[in-house]
Amino acid sequence: MDNRPIGIFDSGLGGLTVFKEIAEQLPHESLVYFGDSGRAPYGTKSRETVIKYTLQNIRFLLTHDIKMVVIACNTMSAHGYEFVSKNHDLPIIEVIGAGAMAAVAETRNKKIGVIGTPLTISSGVYQKAINKLDNSIEIYQKACPLFVPLVEEGQEWWENNITYSIAKEYLTPLKQTGVDTLVLGCTHYPLLKNTISKVMGEGVTLVSSAYEVARVVKRIILDNNMQRDPQLKPMYHYYTSDSVEKFEPLCSAILGKTINSAKRVDIEEY
């Protein structure tokens, strides 16, 4: 047994899709979430800056005596995971491997599209992960830099006409390649899944790593006897580097329940 919480962090709100899946698959576990909305988006920043932010985020979570870190951000997973995993003893879980495995399992015609932030796409990390599993798969990638700020802007932007027009501009070239599977290579993107699906059409399967990552976390917890005492009530804590007043309504919308206990953190102190 290990009653310490699991720490989860992202560049903003997108990691709450991972938080939600972990809470559903491991309902007895306590979770601590940090969303760095004050410095989002990460995908347009340099690799050095992303690594710096990743280290600060982990240092903050470590003040909560966590037993595991989940990097619920594709950009940080692509550029910070290898570095931070060598410098910490506790389990650190990234999102890219799980997403790649799910995409390979889903595709029927061996044509997979990947969308993500500019930094994630330029890293080629999904292409490497997918082709490591099956090098016969054709991969088509597209950076969608406006998607993260649209999600962070608020729920009313997730399915409006402006977002649809932007999605159509980004995704039409991918649709024309004939991909049958599209990896949502950013944890913000599942919040735009209705709009993305509308553009791509019913024949294209959207793959979100959130569910798959939660499965990985569950397996590690159970295999290493790290589960929390089921007799104890799980505790959930939410932190943001931006406005709590803006964070809480969006957090509530994503998780499907009212959140009114979030706290603001000055992450530059870590």
CATH topology label of the largest domain: Rossmann fold
**Strand arrangement across the biggest beta sheet:** 4-3-1-2-9-10
Shape by Cα distribution: globular
- Under the CATH scheme, which class of the largest domain? Alpha Beta
- What sequence of helices (H) and strands (E) makes up the elements? EHEHEHHEHEHHEHHEHEHEHE
Count of distinct structural domains: 2
Unreliable stretches, pLDDT < 50, 5 or more residues?
Answer: none
Overall mean pLDDT stands at: 94
End-to-end Cα distance: 29 Å
Key phrases:
about 270 residues; Rossmann fold; 6-stranded parallel beta sheet; 4-stranded parallel beta sheet; 12 helices; about 45% helix
Verbal overview:
The protein has 270 residues and is α/β, with parallel strands linked by helices. The protein has 2 domains: 6-94 and 211-269, Rossmann fold, CATH 3.40.50.1860; 96-209, Rossmann fold. The chain is built from 12 helices and 10 strands. The protein has helices at residues 16-25, 47-62, 74-79, 81-85, 96-106, 118-123, 125-133, 147-153, 161-177, 193-200, 209-223, 244-255; strands spanning 6-10, 31-35, 68-71, 92-93, 111-116, 138-143, 181-185, 205-208, 236-240, 263-264. The longest helix is centred in the middle third of the chain and has 17 residues, at 161-177. The radius of gyration is 18 Å and the shape is globular. The two termini are 29 Å apart. 49% of the residues are buried.
The gist of it:
The chain is α/β, with parallel strands linked by helices and 270 residues long. It has 2 domains: 6-94 and 211-269, Rossmann fold (3-Layer(aba) Sandwich); 96-209, Rossmann fold, CATH 3.40.50.1860.
